[in-house]
Amino acid sequence: MTSTASAPTADATSTRIWNFSAGPAVLPEPVLRQCQHDLWDIAGSGIGILEHSHRGPVFNGVIEAAEANCRAVGTIGEEYEVLFLPGGATTQFALIPMCFLPSGQTADYVNTGVWATKAIKEARKFGTVNVAFDGTASDFDHVPADDELSCTSDAAYLHYCSNNTIYGTQFPAPPPAASDVPLIVDASSDIFSRPIDVDRHAMIYAGAQKNLGPAGMALVIIRKDLVEKTPSDLPMMFDYRLHAKKGSRLNTPPTFGIYVMGRVFEWILEQGGLAAMATKNAEKAAVVYDAIDHAGGFYRGVARPESRSAMNVTFRTPSADLDAAFLEEAATHDMSGLKGHRDAGGLRASIYNAFPKRGCQVLAEFMGDFARRKG
């Protein structure tokens, strides 16, 4: 029996407000529109993406295109596996030391915030950790200069978080690692926001919900020689080698998440790739940072200027009461998600790849007006 139901029509006039959420975060509107269509019927198949078999021909095309576009965006060579894995970045906190921190060796971790702290805690369950830098004393207001790092010469790997969502700091470049020490990065909140030197890294991983797609999964870009170091006695879902061998379909994968990520990769390529994204993101961030820096001291940035993030702009007004008033008034101007993380307080504007520059301008205009009235 053939269904005669027609596809629901999206309301193109419905209002979308400025979404400054740190994650799950704003997605490109063209991607959302395509998702609406493909939820009903993808590729003329008469079946929506949520309903297709993960081993059928339609999803074969989806995952193959997602990987190909991911490789094109990141200029990722064949010496790397590209994996789409469930469990978000947090699962990787455990899998990395489980697989790559042998007994008797030490892993170096750079502690620049809450998520790095969580990664360190997980790693210590499996082996010895050297905290090569600890930003706790300075309230995580910067990423370390090279001379602030105390690394182990023969470390199993060096792990860092490239962008620290909660405190609004970002590495301008990867930290130095000895040539034979694998460099591993949690790039959850700035993945594909700027060119990335893939060849410097043995592994790049990111939760999807900030710059790539829906929550609940991770993109893992991992060098094949590191994959081969995975112990053979792990449960199968913890084994990178098996995930690679099965093309990210060791079990039924998060098919919709992979589909959306593929669409986002395609969108990034349409924007001009990572160099173009970096330019746009720098311009957007400058609008908000200028509003902080030119408000006569009314606003105080959380991050030191040399460590400022282009993805998460963190700041405070002179008091917690004014922070609360700022949030209340911002909501009446169609701005959402500006409350700082519970561990940092204050205010935070997350302006990932898909966030439009006009939204940054609206925020900056409001910030200027608020400072004039309350300062």
Verbal overview:
The chain is an alpha/beta fold. The chain folds into 2 domains: 40-270, Aspartate Aminotransferase, domain 2, CATH 3.40.640; 273-374, Aspartate Aminotransferase, domain 1 (Alpha-Beta Complex), CATH 3.90.1150.10. It has helices at residues 29-40, 57-74, 88-100, 114-123, 224-227, 240-245, 255-271, 273-293, 320-332, 357-374; strands at residues 18-19, 80-86, 106-111, 128-134, 158-161, 163-164, 169-170, 183-186, 203-207, 217-223, 300-301, 312-316, 335-336, 347-350.
Q: At the fourth CATH level, what is the homologous superfamily of the largest domain?
A: Type I PLP-dependent aspartate aminotransferase-like (Major domain)
Question: If strands are numbered along the chain, what order do they take across the biggest sheet?
Answer: 2-10-9-8-5-3-4
Number of domains: 2
- Average pLDDT score: 95
Q: Segments where pLDDT lies below 50 for 5+ residues? A: 1-5
How much of the polypeptide forms β-strand, as a percent range?
A: 15-25%
Total number of helices: 10
| CATH topology (level 3) name of the largest domain | Aspartate Aminotransferase, domain 2
Distance between the termini: 68 Å
Radius of gyration: 21 Å
Largest sheet: 7 strands, mixed
Task: Please bin the fraction of helical residues.
Answer: 25-40%
Q: What's the order of the H and E elements?
A: EHHEHEHEEEEEEEHHHHEEHEEH
- Structural class by secondary-structure content: alpha/beta
CATH class of the largest domain: Alpha Beta
Number of distinct beta strands? 14
Q: In the CATH hierarchy, what is the architecture of the largest domain at level 2? A: 3-Layer(aba) Sandwich
Shape: globular
